[in-house]
Structures are given as structure tokens and as C-alpha cells.
């Protein structure tokens, strides 16, 4: 399921619907640090992400039941310090949850995938390319 979700992010990135800077897919939630175009609302971006994943999980994985809770939480990034803090928070989420000792070992996040790409190894997940930039976009 995580690979299917990551593949959905990749599709939207390639289509120019959003720019994904960092993400992590946890067992019961996700964190995404993204920039969306000025003509797209956050609500629309979340509808795309959640709706397409729900559809694919149902049709491709034969998953029955609710995938998402209602709503989502959002934080607006206002400066470089906030951007850096959120990147660290996202990367360290699997470590804080006790899933891995170091963030780079968690296979369902951008930290792992970026490290794999930098080392020249083929990413085992569906999200092999680089993930966004380090620019702060208010």
C-alpha cells in the first residue's frame, strides 16, 4: 500500500500538480512537505492525493473499507527555519515511532529514497527520482 501511495505522489509531481519536498508513509498516517501551484487549493491537492489512493487501493489491491480519516492537518511554512524543522520532523518520524534506528533505513520515505538515489542504487520503491528542492516557498 505504501508503494501505491508513493507512486500516486510521483504521478502528481510529474503532472505538475504539486512539488513534493519530503514525505514519509507511516503505518497509520502520512506526512508530506509539498508546494502546490498558486491556482490549486490545499483542499484540492489533498482531495487528489486521498481520492486517487482510495480508488487505487480498492481497485488494484482489493482493499475494502475506509482508508482515510476525515480532514487533515496542515502547517504553512513561513521561512527557511520552519522548512528545515519540518524536513527534520518528517525524516525522524519513523525513528520516533521505533520503526527504525536511523531515518535512512525506513523504506517508505523520501530520506531513504534520496539516499538510495545518491548512492546510485536502484530504489526498491515506486518513487526513484529526486523529490523536489530545498527552496522555501511561502
Strands ordered across the widest β-sheet? 1-2
- Low-confidence parts: 125-138
Query: Please, how many helices?
Result: 4
Distance between the termini: 31 Å
Q: Based on helices, strands and strand pairing, what is the structural class?
A: mainly alpha
Please bin the fraction of helical residues: 40-55%
How many strand units?
2
What labels describe this entry?
two-stranded antiparallel sheet; globular; 138 residues; single chain; disordered C terminus; mainly alpha
Please provide a written account of the structure.
The chain is mainly alpha-helical and 138 residues long. It is 42% helix and 9% strand. The protein has helices spanning 2-14, 42-60, 80-96, 110-118; strands spanning 19-25, 30-35. Strands 1-2 form a two-stranded antiparallel ribbon. The protein is globular.
Question: Which helices and strands occur, and which strands form pairs?
Answer:
Elements: H1 2-14, E1 19-25, E2 30-35, H2 42-60, H3 80-96, H4 110-118
Antiparallel strand pairs: 1-2
Helix pairs in contact: 1-2
Describe the structure in brief:
This protein has 138 residues and is mostly helical.
